[in-house]
Amino acid sequence: MKHLLSTQDLSARNALRLLNVAEEMAAVGQREIKKLPALRGRTVVNLFFEDSTRTRISFEAAAKRLSADVINFAAKGSSVSKGESLKDTAQTLEAMSADAVVIRHPASGAPARLAASGWIDAAVVNAGDGTHEHPTQALLDAFTLRRHWAKLDGTPSAGTTLAGMKVLIVGDVLHSRVARSNVWLLTTLGAEVLLAGPPTLLPVGVGAWPCTVYYNLDDALAQRPDAVMMLRLQAERMNAAFFPSTREYSRRWGFDDGRLALLDTMGLDDTVIMHPGPMNRGLEISSAAADSPRSTVLAQVRNGVSVRMAALYLLLSGDSQDDPQDDQPENQADQPDQLATTPEGRTP
Amino acid sequence: MTTDTTAGSTATPSATEYLILGASILGGDAADLLIRDGLIAVVGPEAADAASRGAVTIDAEGLVALPGMVDLHTHLREPGREDAETVETGSRAAALGGFTAIHAMANSSPVADTAGVVEQVYRLGLASGWVEVRPVGAVTVGLGGQRLAELGAMAESRASVRVFSDDGICVHDPVLMRRALEYVKAFDGVIAQHAQEPRLTEGAQMNEGEVSAVLGLTGWPAVAEESIIARDVLLAQHVGSRLHVCHVSTAGSVEIIRWAKARGIDVTAEVTPHHLLLTDELVRSYDPVYKVNPPLRTSDDVHALRAALADGTIDVVGTDHAPHPSEHKECEWAQAAMGMTGLETALSVVQHAMVETGLLDWEGFARVTSVAPARIGRLEHQGRPLAAGEPANLILVDPAARWTVDPSTMATKGRNSPFRGLELPGSVRATFYAGHPTVLEGRLATPRQAPAASMTGEAPAWNI
Amino acid sequence: MTVPASKSGIHKRVVLAEADIDRALTRIAHEILEANRGSRDLVLLGIPRRGFPLAQRLAQKISAVDPAVDPDLITGQLDVTMYRDDLRRNPTRSPLATQLPPSGIDDKVVVLVDDVLYSGRTIRAALDALADLGRPRIVRLAVLVDRGHRELPIRADHVGKNLPTSSRERVRVHLAEIDLIGGSAVNEVVIEDRL
Q1: Same domain, yes or no, for B33 and B106?
Q2: Domain-embedded: residue A176
Q3: Does B328 count as an annotated binding residue?
Q4: Where residue C128 sits, what CATH number does that domain have?
Q5: Are residues A82 and A119 in the same domain?
Q6: How far is C117 from chain A (nearest CA, A)?
Q7: What is the gyration radius of the CA atoms in chain C, in angstroms?
Q8: A114-118, B161-165, B254-258: lowest mean pLDDT where?
Q9: pLDDT tops 90 at residue A290
Q10: pLDDT exceeds cutoff 50 at A81
Q11: Same domain for A161 and A91?
């Protein structure tokens, strides 16, 4: 992996490897000294063209726990002008010898453009681009789901997939980079994905996605999902005639107290409720649902740091752009073999 | 092709006779042609005998002789954006691409919405002398879609404008469109519509479909084009006017135009070379070189457009040559300008997509690239048969040539060719514009000197 | 004990067979107990991947001498991947789990266990990793094979076998817990040399 731009082009093996590494990173978070020297002397730039304190802080913590130097560059509202901004900014960062650029941008494809342009040599990590993808969010969601799934199964998380799991994603899929990244990643990891939302907020062309689409949330819940992921409803959509009113949206598509009770009635004791945050309480999710024991919202935030550590580590260590497992030089016996963490690698 | 001079003289611009030996006329039998005084003087075995001793001889064995291509849809950017293109650079690119006439779209700055601006562009074209440059007049003042521009004044100006278009912007007000269609009947004009329903395409970035769903780019739905075409053909029928539809891009549009033609509606349609070859799959790269309006569509659309061009539902190929300075493409997709260059690749792309697929022969190629566009633009001296007594606007093409597109070597200022790196067939070896070779040996030769009378406004430049 | 050269043109020589390995580990186990004057505060940390099964085997042997010792409670694994000094020069490595015994390592006598001691860089990384996890009273090093060519001032306290090698050669340790060769579990130490 040279860049992390989308989950659509992430192979199952690379996705699992990243999640497995994230498990080890999570263990570091439990230690007294929560720091590893792996990226000492490397520079990670957080290049944010859009405000997102949560994501920025998560990446910053991840980079710092790996001992990287972090530069935060909030391009929004600065003198960066339209059109030339991305190229000029990229060249500035190149001149500062950035090793990785974590980019959040309102334009779909901006990270891919940065990675392919030749303006910069650094590894590019997509921290959310327009309505395209948000791969680290999907990875932390998958990480959270996998821990839940493995726990139910009584097996260690590392190495397991999401095979057999049914995940329902609800809301504004059309404008959601979180939904897109999750659809690709979760299906790659073996999960079955269901989408539910108003027809106006499902993209034309969704029929080609590897998902089942429901226009009625209760019909979708009747499929007995193992996880329900509620998408945030962006304020700017509320007045753009995608649906008649927020009240109607909330009644038809919100995860309210009635639907929370329904899970109990249906005997779905192990079904979790997810939300990428920040939540519109009372709109797409009720407070009771958000704060219920089913909610994984805080676990998702916590896991974000581990997953982002894994991403930065895998992108920045090593001199090879190839997947090392494909072309592995023989090691001296002095060195541990470079194998992905597998169940056998975990000790009792 | 080799160019030879007999009697020891050299091929200078002043040479007035050209003897073309053994060119395949429209892909058919080989024949000799003698070009003299701006006309095709002789076609056939007696051409060599008729040539004077100073005639320049061109060995055209293996080359196809075609009428010079006529583009109904070129953006020359002058006046206003001379950093993107000028009449001079654009018409050089046109000559190299095998064109002898191009229509300069009205979206310059200032907009070509007055007799003054169209005459300026016209005069710049004459001064350049590489091809015939015919300005397109704006339909509405400033392309604003509010008030009709002075269409009559532009028609009666020295530029004799016959094609009117707000291209880049749709004349979406139905009443305004109706009035425009009616009004240009007074001087045999035609409205060339950029069919794009504005509300359905707010913020649109690419074709709306499976690819846009994945890429998270705002969709430009086919219905936004088709609904305007449907409305316009009915308006044209109602008022009995001529309508030309620019850059048709969808299979649905083809069906509507086919229906309209079957009903006898006087509609003509155009397709760009890029819509005959490229699909929205290319957008997955997010490389703005593939950003264009209307957007690249699906392979089903591409095949429907090819079939329509072959069966005459679509009448012409128009390049929609749209050069942009590199900074307008070296950015994020959403901020990038729409448009692609096309003049220097049109022949090769159409040969590749239409001729080599067996959909068109060279005669059909001449129909869609020269005869039909000249008729729509009312250019009586272009798109003519290759016969004695006809104006010598013709090209010699090597259909067996193969070349790799390299935008950095093009004559246009635009480097935004979506065909970069593709190997394409066919190369223009010579272009004769009004009997004067603007291209020889596949390279620019010399521009034609405008007749003095045309510069003073007494006679049109092409009046030979 | 010379194995015919394989098709790949690599000459293989078995230098320790299963019984040799077992004898060496028995001796090391006794040395560890002797140096520590018993099993008190002992923790054996294997360095992945092959150091860990060696640590387990040593713990078994210690337990055989001192039945009061539960081998599982004194054994752990120490991953050093993130502390290596060559992360940028080699293809990306995935870290493996670090698992400490329930008693932790603070004020313990930690014996690092690895299969082959070569440049010493792995042990340097292990010492750094250890420092981030706690503060042992004493740290010792046990290796199955010391092949020389040290690049750092590091030496082993307990060595199964000293093997003079050329740097061109490779020392491969195969342990039944991890390595399957031709479908069967093998315990051996092999020197490979390109012909």
Answers
A1: no
A2: yes
A3: no
A4: 3.40.50.2020
A5: yes
A6: 6
A7: 17
A8: A114-118
A9: yes
A10: no
A11: no
For strand B64-67 and strand B394-404, is the pairing parallel, antiparallel, or unpaired? antiparallel
Instruction: Count how many domains chain C has.
Output: 1
Does A35 belong to an annotated binding site?
no
Token duo for residue A263? 């899970």
B83 assigned binding-site residue: no
Say yes or no: A336 contacts chain C, CB-CB below 8 A: yes
How close B336 gets to chain A, by Cα (Å)? 7
- Asked, for residue B405, whether it belongs to a domain, the answer is yes
Do the chains A and B touch each other, judged by at least 3 C-beta pairs below 8 angstroms?
yes
Q: Phi/psi at B419 (nearest 5 deg)?
A: -95, 5
Structural domain for A26, as ranges? 12-133+302-319
Res B354: pLDDT: 98
Strand blocks (E) in B209-250: 219-220, 243-245
- CA–CA dist B58, A274 (Å, integer): 76
pLDDT at A83 over 60: no
Same domain flag for A63 and A180: no
Give the separation between CA A98 and CA B302, rounded to whole angstroms.
43
**B401 touching A (Cβ < 8 Å):** no
Whether residue C43 lies inside any domain: the answer is yes
Bridge partners, residue B430, by sequence: B396
C186 within some domain: no
Minimum-distance CB partner of A320 among C48, C91, C170: C91
- B101 and B161 fall within a common domain: yes
Measured between beta carbons, which residues in chain C are less than 8 angstroms from residue A22?
none
The answer to whether the Cβ–Cβ distance between B334 and A129 falls below 8 Å is: no
User: What ipTM does this complex have?
Assistant: 0.89
Note whether residue C189 is domain-resident.
Answer: no
The larger pLDDT score, comparing residue B460 to residue C23, is at C23
Q: How far is C106 from chain A (nearest CA, A)?
A: 13
Chain C touching partners, 3 or more CB pairs below 8 A: A
**A94 in the same domain as A200:** no
Query: pLDDT, tens digit, for every residue of B284-332?
Result: 999 999 999 999 999 999 999 999 999 999 999 999 999 999 989 988 9
Vertex A19, ends A318 and C126: CA angle to 5°? 50
Q: Which of B71, B280, B315, B320 is catalytic?
A: B320
Q: How far is A205 from chain B (nearest CA, A)?
A: 4
Supply the mean pLDDT for chain B.
94
Q: Tally C-beta pairs within 8 A across A and B.
A: 80
| B455 assigned to some structural domain | no
Tokens of B133: 């440059």
Residue with tokens 């509620």: A230
Using the predicted structure, report yes or no on whether residue B386 has a pLDDT greater than 80. Answer: yes
A177 marked ligand binding residue: yes
Residues B31 and B169 in one domain: no
Q: What are phi and psi of A202, to 5 degrees?
A: -115, 135
Residue C11 within any structural domain of the chain: no
How confident is the model over C137-166, as pLDDT tens digits? 999 999 999 999 999 999 999 999 999 999
Residue B383: inside a domain, yes or no?
Answer: no
Which secondary-structure segment (H or E) carries A295?
A: none
B395 and B325 assigned to the same domain: no
For residue B320, indicate whether it is catalytic.
yes
A339 in contact with chain C, both atoms CB, cutoff 8 A? yes
Q: Which helix (H) or strand (E) holds B121?
A: helix B115-128
Give me the amino acid identity at A233: L
Query: Which chain A residue shows the shortest CA-CA distance from B212?
Result: A205
A46 and A181 within one domain: no
The residue range of the domain holding B29 is 2-65+390-448
CB contact under 8 A, A318 and C83: no
- Give CA–CA dist C53/A347, Å, rounded: 10
Query: Is residue A343, in this structure, part of any structural domain at all?
Result: no
Residue A336 has pLDDT above 60, yes or no: no
Number of folded domains that form chain A: 2
pLDDT tens, A8-61? 999 999 999 999 999 999 999 888 899 999 999 999 999 999 988 999 999 999
Read off the pLDDT of residues B120-159 as tens digits, 9 standing for 90 and up: 999 999 999 999 999 999 999 999 999 999 999 999 999 9
pLDDT value at position A65?
Answer: 96
In a domain, A295, yes or no: yes
What pLDDT, in 10s, does the model give residues A128-158? 999 999 999 999 999 999 999 999 999 988 8
Closest partner residue to A36 among C48, C82, C147, by Cβ? C82
Rounded to the nearest angstrom, the gap between the alpha carbon of residue B72 and the centroid of all alpha carbons in its chain is 4
**Residue A55 assigned to a binding site:** yes
Q: Is the dihedral of CA B204, B206, B209, B212 positive or negative?
A: negative
A206/B331 Cβ within 8 A: no
